[in-house]
Write a structure and sequence with these properties.
Blueprint lengths: L2 H16 L22 H5 L2 H9 L7 H14 L2 E2 L1 H8 L3 H11 E4 L7 E4 L18
Antiparallel strand pairs: 1-3, 2-3
């Protein structure tokens, strides 16, 4: 290897190190600078009608007696009911309904009726058959 070619290589490497990696380029084009806005992504991509529909479908809290009677009516039909099903039956917010469920029901965590609610014994009222055994007095 000749010393002349090595000298060229060393000079080229030194010039490359001195050259900045990025350069400023001046253009005559105007650029659009987008400013941030307070509008959320959901508001940007939903129509006004969709937003109004969402507001109409919001669940509102009823008074406690009405909610309790709806829960009891639901449990007259079925002994074990999932929380999701109760929310759809009553039309109440999930957190509000859960307050009543903790007060009136027992949560089953074991297999035959896993993840369902059942009325506490003091709230149970199941209709008996009219043709049931007659009591002798």
């Amino acid at each position: 290897v000749s010393t002349q070619s090595t000298g060229k290589l060393k000079r080229f490497e030194a010039e490359k190190k001195m050259d900045p990696g990025r350069k400023i380029v001046i253009t005559n084009k105007s650029h659009n600078n987008f400013k941030p806005s307070n509008v959320s992504r959901e508001q940007m991509y939903t129509t006004k009608a969709e937003r109004e529909e969402k507001l109409r479908n919001k669940r509102t809290r009823l008074d406690a007696d009405a909610v309790e009677s709806m829960i009891l009516r639901a449990f007259k039909k079925h002994q074990y009911i999932s929380q999701k099903h109760l929310v759809s039956i009553t039309g109440q917010p999930e957190a509000y309904l859960k307050e009543f469920l903790h007060k009136m029901c027992v949560y089953n965590q074991k297999t035959p009726h896993k993840n369902t609610w059942e009325l506490k014994p003091e709230y149970r009222y199941y209709e008996t058959d009219a043709a049931g055994p007659a009591e002798d007095s």
